[in-house]
Structures are given as structure tokens and as C-alpha cells.
Design brief:
- The protein is mainly β.
- It folds into nine domains: 116 residues, Immunoglobulin-like (Sandwich); 115 residues, Immunoglobulin-like, CATH 2.60.40; 101 residues, Cadherins (Immunoglobulin-like, Sandwich), CATH 2.60.40.60; 99 residues, Immunoglobulin-like (Sandwich); 114 residues, Cadherins (Immunoglobulin-like); 101 residues, Immunoglobulin-like; 96 residues, Sandwich (Immunoglobulin-like); 96 residues, Sandwich (Immunoglobulin-like), CATH 2.60.40.60; and more.
- Helices cover 0% and strands 43% of the residues.
- The chain contains no helices and 79 strands.
- Strands 3-4-10-9-6 form a five-stranded mixed β-sheet, with no helix packed on it. A four-stranded antiparallel β-sheet has the order 2-5-8-7, with no helix packed on it.
- The N terminus is likely disordered.
- It is found in: Membrane.
- One of its GO terms (biological process) is homophilic cell adhesion via plasma membrane adhesion molecules.
- InterPro entries: Cadherin-like_dom, Cadherin-like_sf, Cadherin_CELSR1-3_9th, Cadherin_CS.
């Protein structure tokens, strides 16, 4: 019965026997109820399903179960097995019978719903088979929840376990190249060991089946010119490359994954390497010396020859430009820059120049160009009978005294022929020009008094003259050359027979001075001289007797005077003054006079440039006002006729030419990247009247300067790479451009200043491919911030930088880690069943699905007192916890991030609660005391102890008298429960005392 203090048992009565015995009598209530006993009640079906225990069996195909760890089953199965392959058979036990013991199995995916498509479970047998072929590269781990449910009524009971299926790798993937075909260009003459490109192949299999080796297959291995690094796939040159020998290489690269199961797989890719041309070959003329014979009457603007030079290079490096370096006297010829055709642009004159020796320059279009100036062309001018004889004067007139002897030379008939050789060798003969008047004989009559020497042209007296018979003779003279065809000219001759006289002719002037322009027309009158003969009927004839250099002048007698005419063209450069001695004769007597003829210059020559094409170069970084080249032309005239002015034909704003000196200077800044060359047409004109000119072309090649810094194609690069990739794995490729050319535009990529991820990455200097240099660890560094530079090879070099972010992708390479290896958990007893008593957690430094953790109890949970939530680690009590039954549990928990695990020991210590009342049964104390005569009282001291007990270890009991001890017969220690006799007890007291005692706990 409950006492006054709440939990003390009521009804115990203490009966003290006065005298020999003192005994406690059992109370009215009999025995106290020590506590209720809990029983699992039998269900309606006969037996409660307390906890089905799942047992795994080996699958039909022989796939061994890796082990049962608590509530998680683990199996492994190779990929690519056909649908229907047995995985495992799961069985649950249920001690019930009938429908209550008939089980149905079901299964669902955890974490990834795709797993539902890959497996099925037989609802009756628990056999798990594949529903389709597995692919490790698509998903390598499947976590499934398997439930077994009975068919009991009214409530169906179930149990759950977890199945982890790991898909093992087979070598079912061939290597796959990053590109089906690789194309790369390299320049010829590169150094041996130059890295051309990097070949990369990947394999979806696991690393053991994806360890790539590269090699070049024969044929097509480049005849030993190239080699490939078997590990990195870097293709390098191992011999010098000459485009003129081989311009393209076609390589076959094999990648072998070295797989073991079922064997290695390989793939091939084509690599096309084009060799770019370097300007390393000079143009070569087809002949050492060209010889051409050109008739002097060849038409102007006709082609006389085509020279040809070939260049073994390609493209602009092989494009040949031709120009005449020297020998082009008076600008006689023009060569077409591109074709090499040489045209005649001015008439030839054999009589002036008989042979031209031209030096030809062949220049290719390279930067810088290569020049061959060894071309020689000999142009031999062939004479043509293109000039008829020209009489120095027409008509010819002469007088002769009638008394001259036979053979007397009367008149010198003179003709000239500008041709040469036989074409210029003349014969003279007398011809009949017209009937003579007055019955005078004509040429051809027998007895004609004159004859002509057919070689010298002198007409002499062949018969005696008789003025009284014939005073005047009129006939013709013909000059014939020996050319083919024969060319002739004729002139009239008049000879007057004079009387003999005794007076000398006398010139009216003692000396003559005059100026004559050099461009005076042949045949034009120069001066008329007059000599007077006092004789009657005297006839004065005139002759130039000296000073007539090159027979430039002729003189005839007209109207009593001597007319000097121009017989041949004048040339101011050859002769600037003539001093003629003219003789006036009446046949026997004569007089002389000097004629001073000063030749004045005429604008007969046009300016002539030294070359029809000039090529010069200038660096683009030269300042405005830089003198590039000075060109000059010559003019064989003099004075104003030879003063030359230079002008630009086209308005090209970048340049100007000094009109007086011919110096070309820059007016604007030049930019090679905007325009690499200019062609200026320069005209030189003289200041004569009429004005004459010549034109040449100046090609100005702009030389590149390193004035453009490299520029990346992107402002920022981002890439990602798995942390388990092998060394030298390609992460991403940078690309930059440089508008400069040659070395100024050739780029190298590099890390500078420690921006290479502390040495975890390196960059290929020529390709810009960033590769891993060391093993990566995402848990150590998840994101790298790199900075790369593109540096050109100019002097000084220019560079550009770009920021790169490389994200390291996670793989499941870290096991879960508990906070500590052992946990101490304190749990109050009597915690409700199903309540969460603790949370066990582990951390996984991986991320995403690689950091998903499954928890399970693997040891110590027998019987199953606790349950650990698979996903969050909540520890739940499945049964009542009673400190008085068991004070501590030790379990081992496991955290799994497939296939990695870790374990920890958990000590679960129960905290006692005051959940038990003290236990006290009726008792009696009997003792005997023999009273002596010496004493009339009972002895003192402990006579007994109240036999109370509390199962709660933490409780301390308190003892008190409730009733029956009003006379203070006994003393009670409230803490220990010990009883002593009071000193007030004596023989006069009652022999028996019934007392009621109360015992209470600390909180009850």
C-alpha cells in the first residue's frame, strides 16, 4: 500500500513482544506488489512478427555476395551482362503460418530513380535480376531499398533492408580521339624537337582499362620526320622539314587503352600536317644569258623576248617580279613586272645603237624578298634597209668654163644613206630627167659632155664644152644603194657653161654669225650668202670647202647667192658650233668667207629613270618625315630642257616626293598590319617646250615592327577537370592572336609569377594547351585561379595576360569520417520507444552524390534495441530502455559512401531515473533480554534495520515512524534505517508494540 510520503508501502505493522521476543507482524495488505511485468501479446494470427531477419543467398549466375553488413547488402556485377542476369536472392523469415507468413518482396531506388529501370525483384522469391544491360560509365553504383511484407490481417507487417549493387568495369569502350581528324600547319626549317600538336584520346572505361599509349603506324609515319610521345601524345619533329621536298604529311596515330578484360582496344586518327613555306629559295633564271636579235624596224610596243625565273617556294614567296636594273639606254625597253615580257617602247635605230646589254632583276614576294640580279639579256639590233639615199642638196647646179680640160671635175654629187654596210654603199649614175630645151643634148646621148664616177659621185667633163653651142645642161642623177630591196633617190643637175673671166667673186660680208636650233628640220634654209663678180655674165658658184663636220650642211647656188641648208639633223651634245668656210667661185677665180653657226639646245630628249621599277623597304615604326629613297632621272638636254621635276601620279596620302630632289618621305604613320606595301607611280618631266616625261614605279615594302601586343580570343577562360585524371591531361586550350608578322607575331604561352596553381598545371608554349602537372585533389583545392601570358618573339617582346578559372570536379575518393572513433552517448532510461536518442554523423569532403552517406549498425545491436536511420544517422530506440535491466550498450556504426566506408564505436550509457518505489515487506524483530537484578532497563544499541530496498541506484531512502512509537520505545535513524532501544524502555512497558514505518525515495 502506498504510504504517506507517496511511495512508502503502507500497512506494515511492527509488533514488539515485551519480554523475550519482539517480532514484526505482516500488515493487513499481505505482500506488496513488487512491479508489473510487460508481455508481448499474441496477435490475432497467432505469433507477432517481432523482427524479420533477412538472409542473402548466392545468385544464380554465381555473383558472390560481398557481405551482409547490418541492414545493407553489397554485391558486384560486371557491366554489359544481358538482361535477366541474376544478381542476388533475398529471403526474409516470418515464423507465422498461412497468409500471415507468406511474404511479398518489393524494391525501389534510393538517390537515383534511374536505378529502377535496371533491376527487378521477383515478388514471391525475392530474386533480384537485371532488367537491362548495365553500363558502368553511365552509373557505377545503385542503391536499392528492398521491403518484405506479409499478408497478415488486419495489419500487414514488413521489414526493410538495403541493397548496394556495384557495377564493375569491363573494357567495352574503344579510345575516342578528341578530334576525328587533326590538321596542323608548321613552317619549314623548324628546329628538331619542335612540338607540332598534342593528340589526346579518352576512354570511358575505368583507369585500368583506359591507360593510353600512342604510336605512329606505318606506312605514313612521315618517313621518320615525326615522332609521338607514347604517354603524352605530343607529336614532335625528329628531322628537318623542307616544304620543297614534302609539302604535306599524312600520319596515322593509334591509341591503345591497354585494357585487360576482355583485352586491349585501340582506335586510329588521321593527322594531316601541312608544311608552310618559308622564303628560302632565290628565283632562278631559265637561262644564264638571253640573246635576241631585233630588226630595227620592229614596231613599238611589240614584245621582243620573255624572260622567266622560277622560285621553288610557294604562294607570294614564289611570285616573281621582274625589273631592268641597268643597260636600258634612253628607256628603250620595258619589262612587265609579273610576266617577264620585254617590250620595245621606243623605235630602234641601228645607225644609232647596235646592241643593248640589259641586266634583269628577279625578286620574289617574300618578306623580306630574295633577289637575283644575275639575269643578262643581249638585244642585238639588226640593220634594215630602211633609209633611201638622200642627196645633200637638190637640185644640183654648177657652172663650168668652157675652156676646162677633159676630166675636169665640175660638180660633186653627194648623197648619204643612214643605213650601214651594203645597205649604205651607194652607186651614182646619170639619168634622163627631162628633154632639153633649145636642142641641147640630154643625158644618155652619145657625145654628152659630162660623166659621173659611179662611186665618188664626181661629175667630170667628158667632152669639150662650147658655150656658144650649148650654154646650159639639165639632166638627172640617181643614187642607188645595195640593200634588199634596192632603194634609190634622184636629183636634178643643172650645169651652165661660162665664159672665162678675170674678176674674183667677192662676198658681201667678211664673216657671218648665226644661231641655229638643234631641232631644225633637215632641208631647212640656214643662210644665204652672196658674192658679186664684176665680170659680165659671170656665174658664181658656192661650195663649203671646210668645217662641214659630218656633212651636216649643204650649199647651193640660188639667184646669184649661196643657200646653206641643213642636210642632216643637228645634235647639241655632239657639236655646239660649226665654222664653215664657204668658197664662191666663178670657175677660175674664187673668194672665201667664214660662217659661224652656233647650235642651240632643243628639248629633244625626255627624262629617263635609271630603272623602270624600284623596290625599297621601310619599317612601320619610322617617324613622319623619314626619307625612304631618292630616285633620279637623267635628261641629255641642257638648261631648262634638262631641269627635271618629280611628281606623284596618284594621291597616296602616306607619302610625298620632293619635286626637285626626287626624295620620297613619309607624311603619315605607317602600319604594316593595315597595308604591307605601296606602289607609287612617279613621273619625271623636264621644263622644255614641249614638255617631255618618263614614269617609273616605286614599290615600298613596309617592314613589320613589334607594335602590336598579343590579344587573347576571350577575356576569361573557364575549364573543368576531374581530380583523378592522369598527369598531362588536357584541361583547356588558350588561343591568342598578334597582328604582327614573322617572329613579332609568333607567340609563346607561359605562366609567370606563380600563377600556375602552385605548380599543379603547366602550359604547352606553342599550342597553349593547359595540362595537369601534378595530382589534383578537389578537397584540397576546388577552384584554381590561374593567369597565363601570351608573349611574342619580338624585340622587345610584348605580352598579354588572361585569367583562367579551373574547377576541379569531384570523384568519390574520400571515405566518410566520423568526428571521433568512439562516441559516449547518455540516454535516459524509459525514453519513449521510437524516440531519437542521438544523431550519429560523419562528414565526407567529397561533394554531390559522392558525399551521400548511408549509416548502419554493423555490430553489437543484438537484440535489435536500436535502429540507425540510413540517410541522416538518427539513432532510434526500438525497445524500452531500463537502467535496472542493462546500464550500457556498445554498438559499432558504419558510414558508407560507396564503395568507401568508415566505422566508429558508440557507447550508449543509460541514465537512471527514479522509476521504482522502495520495496518493504512486513517484518518483525525478535530479541530476548534477560533482566538482571542489577538493571531494570533494556540494553542500548542497534537491535535491527528496516529491510527496505529501492532498485534505483541513485535514490537515497528516508525512514520515519508513522504511528505506534508515541512512547518513544525505539529510536530510528532516518538515513540508515537502523533501530535502537530507547532508554525509556523498561520492564514496566508493554510486552508488544505494533508500529507503522514509512520508507520514501529521493523523488518518490
Amino acid at each position: 500500500m502506498q504510504g504517506e510520503q507517496g511511495h512508502a508501502m503502507q500497512g506494515e505493522q511492527l509488533h514488539a513482544m515485551q519480554g523475550e521476543q519482539l517480532h514484526a507482524m505482516q500488515g493487513e495488505q499481505g505482500h506488496a506488489m513488487q512491479g508489473e511485468q510487460l508481455h508481448a501479446m499474441q496477435g490475432e494470427q497467432g505469433h507477432a512478427m517481432q523482427d524479420e531477419q533477412l538472409h542473402s543467398m548466392q545468385g544464380e549466375q554465381g555473383h558472390a555476395m560481398q557481405g551482409k553488413q547490418g541492414h545493407v547488402m553489397r554485391v558486384s556485377i560486371p557491366e554489359n551482362e544481358p538482361a535477366g542476369t541474376a544478381v542476388i536472392v533475398l529471403r526474409a523469415q516470418d515464423p507465422d503460418e498461412g497468409e500471415a507468413g507468406r511474404l511479398a518482396y518489393s524494391m525501389e531506388a534510393l538517390f537515383d530513380e534511374r536505378s529502377n529501370d535496371y533491376f527487378t525483384i521477383d515478388a514471391e522469391t525475392g530474386s533480384v535480376v537485371t532488367a537491362r544491360s548495365l553500363d558502368r560509365e553511365t552509373k557505377d553504383t545503385h542503391v536499392l531499398k528492398v521491403t518484405a511484407s506479409d499478408h497478415g490481417s488486419p495489419r500487414r507487417r514488413s521489414a526493410t533492408t538495403y541493397l548496394t549493387v556495384t557495377v564493375s568495369d569491363t573494357n567495352d569502350h574503344e579510345p575516342v580521339f578528341e578530334q576525328p581528324e587533326y590538321r596542323e600547319s608548321i613552317r619549314e626549317n623548324l628546329e628538331v624537337g619542335y612540338e607540332v600538336l598534342t593528340i589526346r584520346a579518352t576512354d570511358g572505361d575505368a583507369p585500368a582499362n583506359a591507360n593510353m599509349l600512342y604510336r605512329l603506324l606505318e606506312p605514313g609515319a612521315g618517313d621518320g620526320v615525326f615522332e609521338i610521345d607514347p604517354r603524352s601524345g605530343v607529336v614532335r619533329t625528329r628531322a628537318s622539314v623542307d616544304r620543297e621536298e614534302v609539302s604535306e604529311y599524312h600520319l596515322v596515330v593509334e591509341a591503345n587503352d591497354q585494357g585487360k578484360d576482355p583485352g586491349p582496344r585501340s582506335a586510329t586518327a588521321m593527322v594531316h600536317i601541312t608544311v608552310e613555306d618559308e622564303n628560302d629559295n632565290y628565283p632562278q633564271f631559265s637561262e644564264k644569258r638571253y640573246l635576241v636579235q631585233v630588226p630595227e624596224d620592229a614596231p613599238v610596243n611589240s614584245q621582243i623576248l620573255q624572260v622567266q625565273a622560277t622560285d621553288r617556294d610557294r604562294g607570294s614567296n614564289a611570285q616573281v617580279h621582274y625589273s631592268i636594273v641597268s643597260g636600258n639606254l634612253k628607256g628603250q625597253f620595258y619589262i612587265h613586272s609579273f610576266s617577264g615580257a620585254i617590250d620595245l617602247i621606243n623605235p630602234l635605230d641601228y645607225e644609232t645603237i647596235r646592241e643593248y646589254t640589259l641586266r634583269i632583276k628577279a625578286q620574289d614576294g617574300g618578306r623580306p624578298p630574295l633577289i637575283n640580279s644575275s639575269g643578262m639579256v643581249s638585244v642585238q639590233v639588226v640593220d634594215v634597209n630602211d633609209n633611201a639615199p638622200i642627196f645633200v642638196s637638190t637640185p644640183f647646179q654648177a657652172t663650168v668654163l668652157e675652156n676646162v680640160p677633159l676630166g675636169y671635175s665640175v660638180l660633186h654629187i653627194q648623197a648619204v644613206d643612214a643605213d650601214s654596210g651594203e645597205n649604205a654603199r651607194l652607186e651614182y649614175k646619170l639619168i634622163e630627167m627631162a628633154p632639153s630645151t633649145g636642142g641641147a643634148p640630154v643625158a644618155g646621148d652619145s657625145g654628152f659632155p659630162f660623166q659621173i664616177n659611179n662611186s665618188t659621185g664626181w661629175i667630170t667633163v667628158a667632152a669639150e664644152l662650147d658655150r656658144e653651142t650649148v650654154e646650159n645642161y639639165h639632166f638627172g642623177v640617181e643614187a642607188r644603194d645595195h640593200g634588199v630591196p634596192v632603194m634609190t633617190s634622184s636629183a636634178s643637175v643643172s650645169i651652165t657653161v661660162l665664159d672665162v673671166n678675170d674678176n674674183n667673186p667677192t662676198f658681201t660680208e667678211k664673216v657671218y654669225h648665226l644661231r641655229l636650233n638643234e631641232d631644225a628640220a633637215v632641208g631647212s634654209s640656214v643662210l644665204t650668202l652672196t658674192a658679186v663678180d664684176r665680170d659680165v655674165n659671170s656665174v658664181v658658184t658656192y661650195q663649203i670647202t671646210s668645217g662641214n663636220t659630218r656633212n651636216r650642211f649643204a650649199i647651193t647656188s640660188q639667184s646669184g647667192g649661196g643657200l646653206i641648208t641643213l642636210a642632216l639633223p643637228l645634235d647639241y651634245k655632239q657639236e655646239r658650233q660649226y665654222v664653215l668656210t664657204v668658197t664662191a667661185s666663178d670657175g677660175t677665180r674664187f673668194d672665201t668667207v667664214q660662217v659661224f653657226i652656233n647650235v642651240t639646245d632643243a628639248n629633244t630628249h625626255r627624262p629617263v629613270f635609271q630603272s623602270s621599277h624600284y623596290t625599297v623597304s621601310v619599317s612601320e615604326d619610322k617617324p613622319i618625315g623619314t626619307s625612304i629613297v631618292t630616285i633620279s632621272a637623267t635628261d641629255e638636254d641642257t638648261g631648262e630642257n634638262a631641269r627635271i621635276t618629280y611628281i606623284l601620279d596618284d594621291n597616296i596620302p602616306q607619302f610625298r616626293i620632293d619635286p626637285d630632289t626626287g626624295t620620297i618621305t613619309t607624311l603619315m604613320e605607317l602600319d604594316y598590319e593595315d597595308q604591307a606595301s605601296y606602289t607609287l607611280a612617279i613621273t619625271a618631266h623636264d621644263n622644255g617646250i614641249p614638255q617631255k616625261s618618263d614614269t617609273t614605279y616605286v614599290e615600298i615594302l613596309i617592314l613589320d615592327a613589334n607594335d602590336n601586343a598579343p590579344r587573347f580570343l576571350r577575356d576569361r577562360y573557364q575549364g573543368s577537370v576531374f581530380e583523378d585524371v592522369p598527369l598531362s591531361t588536357s584541361v583547356l586550350q588558350l588561343s591568342a592572336t598578334d597582328r604582327d608578322s614573322g617572329l613579332n607575331g609568333r607567340l609563346l604561352y607561359t605562366f609567370q609569377g606563380g600563377d600556375d596553381g602552385d605548380g599543379d598545371f603547366y602550359i604547352e608554349p606553342t599550342s597553349g594547351v593547359i595540362r595537369t602537372l601534378r595530382k589534383l585533389d578537389r578537397e584540397n583545392v576546388a577552384v584554381y585561379s590561374l593567369r597565363a601570358f601570351a608573349v611574342d618573339r619580338g624585340s622587345p617582346p610584348l605580352k598579354a595576360s588572361v585569367d583562367i578559372q579551373v574547377t576541379v570536379l569531384d570523384i568519390n575518393d574520400n571515405p566518410p569520417v566520423f568526428e571521433k572513433d568512439e562516441f559516449d552517448i547518455f540516454v535516459e532510461e524509459n525514453s519513449p520507444v521510437g524516440s531519437i536518442v542521438a544523431r550519429i554523423s560523419a562528414a565526407d569532403p567529397d561533394e554531390g552524390t559522392n558525399a551521400q552517406i548511408m549509416y548502419q549498425i554493423v555490430e553489437g545491436n543484438i537484440p535489435e534495441v536500436f535502429q540507425l536511420d540510413l540517410l541522416n544517422g538518427d539513432l532510434t530506440a526500438l525497445m524500452d530502455l531500463d537502467y535496472e535491466s542493462r546500464t550500457e550498450y556498445v554498438i559499432v556504426v558504419q558510414a558508407t559512401s560507396a564503395p568507401l566506408v568508415s566505422r566508429a564505436t558508440v557507447h550508449i550509457r543509460l541514465l537512471d531515473q527514479n522509476d521504482n518505489p522502495p520495496v518493504l515487506q512486513d517484518f518483525q524483530i525478535l530479541f530476548n533480554n534477560y533482566v538482571t537484578n542489577k538493571s531494570n532497563s533494556f540494553p542500548s544499541g542497534v537491535i535491527g534495520k528496516i529491510p527496505a530496498h529501492d532498485p534505483d541506484v541513485s535514490d537515497s531512502l528516508a525512514y520515519t515512524f508513522v504511528q505506534g512509537n508515541e512512547l518513544n520505545l525505539l529510536l530510528l535513524d532516518s538515513v540508515t534505517g537502523e533501530l535502537k532501544l530507547s532508554r525509556d524502555l523498561d520492564n514496566n512497558r508493554p510486552l508488544e508494540a505494533l508500529m507503522k514505518v514509512s520508507v520514501s525515495g529521493a523523488t518518490l
